[in-house]
Design brief:
23 helices; two-stranded antiparallel ribbon; 8 strands
Length: 591
């Protein structure tokens, strides 16, 4: 690894102010080694691969460890029907867009064709298989960050990708079969593709941006919020830098030159893109791509046309109402959640945002700051708040954090110290931020804190592989999550089914009002009734809540007995906080 000398780093190099393909928002993009950290191509590749491998390990390791959340169970139920029956109809009142299901439906089929992976009627629908898709998009998001080297700087890009790779929330939500991982990937895809189109004037990037935008809108209705924030961030970045340029060129001759340069850059892009008619033609093509993809997906490939398309428009009416009624939290909730489990990217991101405003040397850093805190503000103003929406902020905050790390390193180059000393100081600062910050927040919320809490990256391991179902206030991502007890109950059901010698034909009666994600875990059983209330039954297995124990006793008398086991002597199975399930079976099946 080669580090630029202090003298050369401090010396300003003249960059021609032209409308070259490397200019973004009127700013010539610094070279790939413009961060003061000059590294070889080989080192860049090795560092990038290591970050991606770390991101992949954290997201793919033991994917079925965590029991499915309520929402994952609902999504899994949609997927089961799509794979088995080829049926999916978008419901604007209750559920998000179709991309998750269609992407997830491809993977089980691929497993079945290549490896013969299937479980009776599930045709490859395992927990690992469905979670593979969001995990893959989670890793792909880290990979997309690494493509921003020219726009953000070498050290900034590597730091941003590393912080995103080990972010507790980014890892946790990438291991969830929900829409968020795909949503943030497509959002970043719009940004990267749009940026490349402006740089290179190649219309293929415009079409990729349109495809990303289409998939973004086909993933969640909140895409409209991201689209508005991105547009505002773009406009504000351009206006702010234009005003700074005019302020710097306060003399009349300089003002004229600044305006001429700005016009040259804009006209240069138009010329490179083939002129206004050609740009207009490709914009129409991009709009066609956007509309076509949405129509195909929301209409279930014309199986639900035009109702599915109309419902996709009508969804904003439903979710505007939902945003005022469900999951209501105070204005400062997202900031508090970020402090508790994402303090490194929040604190470094705030520093990076302030530096980008004051220095304004990189337009993309300023854009990322406006994007990050614009989204944070927009979502905070909405009463509806859930932890998985935090992933929307983590990606741009990681970009701002990377820029802060680069700024710290560049500041150290002003001192007459060696390369090793600068890296040592930078490493010490990062250890404090990534270790001490989360540790102090943990200490603030708990009476007793283990020393491991102060180790950088420990909270990622702790959340994802130890306390994944702990509803302690510190674990903000564990939001009404399914307890690991449910898996024990499913195992008991399997044992009882074996004793009946009926296998997946064993009858199961669910009288519990709350039972998700049980439909996913019982998807291979063909005789399951979800009544949600007390109902007569002669089936071998009955599932009720603890509050229904007296009713079960009255209705079924001594024909059924509550199931106890060595691992569960109390006889109750915790579904999630406040919901305790009880398992009953016919007495002749008790052992």
């Amino acid at each position: 690894m080669r580090i630029a000398s202090t003298r050369s780093a401090g010396r300003k190099r003249r960059v021609p102010e032209t409308s070259s393909p490397e200019s973004v928002l009127g700013e010539p993009i610094p070279s790939q080694t413009g961060s003061g950290l000059d590294i070889s191509k080989r080192f860049w590749v090795i560092a990038s691969v290591c970050i991606l491998l770390l991101a992949a390990f954290l997201r793919f390791y033991d994917l079925d460890l965590v029991p499915l959340h309520h929402d994952e169970g609902v999504n899994g139920n949609f997927l089961v029907r799509l794979v088995r029956e080829g049926f999916y109809h978008y419901d604007p009142a209750n559920y998000h867009g179709p991309t998750l299901y269609y992407f997830a439906a491809l993977f089980p089929r691929l497993l079945r064709v290549l490896f013969g992976v299937q479980t009776q009627n599930s045709v490859g629908l395992t927990t690992e298989a469905i979670r593979f898709v969001p995990a893959l998009f989670g890793v792909a998001t880290v990979a997309l960050v690494l493509t921003l080297r020219r726009n953000l700087g070498t050290l900034a890009t590597l730091s941003a990708a590393a912080l995103l790779a080990i972010s507790p929330g980014a890892v946790y939500l990438s291991r969830y079969f929900i829409h968020e991982s795909l949503f943030v990937f497509f959002t970043l895809g719009v940004v990267v593709a749009g940026l490349r189109y402006y740089e290179r004037a190649n219309p293929i990037y415009l079409l990729i941006a349109a495809l990303s935008a289409a998939l973004l809108f086909a993933t969640k209705e909140t895409a409209i919020i991201s689209a508005i924030v991105l547009l505002l961030a773009l406009v504000l970045t351009y206006v702010y830098r234009l005003l700074r340029t005019r302020a710097a060129n306060s003399g009349a001759p300089k003002r004229k030159k600044g305006r001429a340069d700005s016009r040259a850059q804009q006209s240069g892009f138009v010329a490179r893109a083939g002129g206004p008619p050609n740009i207009a033609l490709w914009l129409v093509a991009a709009l066609v791509v956007f509309l076509a993809v949405n129509v195909l997906l929301y209409s279930s490939f014309f199986k639900n046309f035009p109702k599915g398309v109309w419902d996709a428009i009508k969804t904003f009416e439903f979710w505007t109402k939902t945003g005022k009624e469900a999951h209501v939290h105070p204005l400062s909730t997202y900031v508090w959640w970020l402090l508790l489990q994402e303090s490194p990217v929040l604190l470094l991101g705030a520093i990076g945002a302030m530096v980008s405003v004051v220095r304004s040397t990189r337009a993309f850093a300023l854009f990322s700051a406006l994007w990050a805190f614009g989204l944070l503000t927009a979502y905070s103003l909405i009463a509806y708040k859930t932890p998985w929406l935090v992933l929307n902020f983590i990606v741009p905050l990681a970009l701002c954090s990377g820029y802060a790390v680069q700024w710290i390193y560049e500041g150290l180059t002003r001192f007459e110290v060696g390369r090793g000393a600068r890296l040592l100081v930078l490493g010490f600062v990062l250890l404090i931020v990534t270790g001490l910050g989360p540790g102090l927040m943990r200490a603030y919320t708990e009476e007793k804190v283990h020393w491991k809490t102060f180790i950088p990256g420990y909270q990622t391991f702790d959340l994802n592989f130890r306390n994944y179902d702990n509803d302690n206030q510190y674990y903000v991502y564990v939001y009404a999550h399914t307890r690991r007890d449910l898996v024990k109950m499913v195992d008991e059901i399997k044992r009882i089914a074996q004793r009946t010698h009926q296998g997946n034909q064993t009858g199961i009666t669910i009288v519990a009002p709350e039972y998700w994600p049980l439909p996913w875990y019982l998807r291979d059983y063909n005789r399951v009734g979800y009544f949600g209330r007390m109902s007569q039954s002669t089936e071998p297995i009955i599932v009720a809540t603890q509050g229904q124990a007296a009713e079960v006793e009255t209705m079924f008398g001594d024909r059924y007995q509550q199931v106890h086991s060595g691992s569960n002597p109390a006889g109750t199975f915790s579904l999630r906080p406040g919901v305790e399930l009880m398992l009953f079976t016919r007495r002749e099946l008790v052992k």
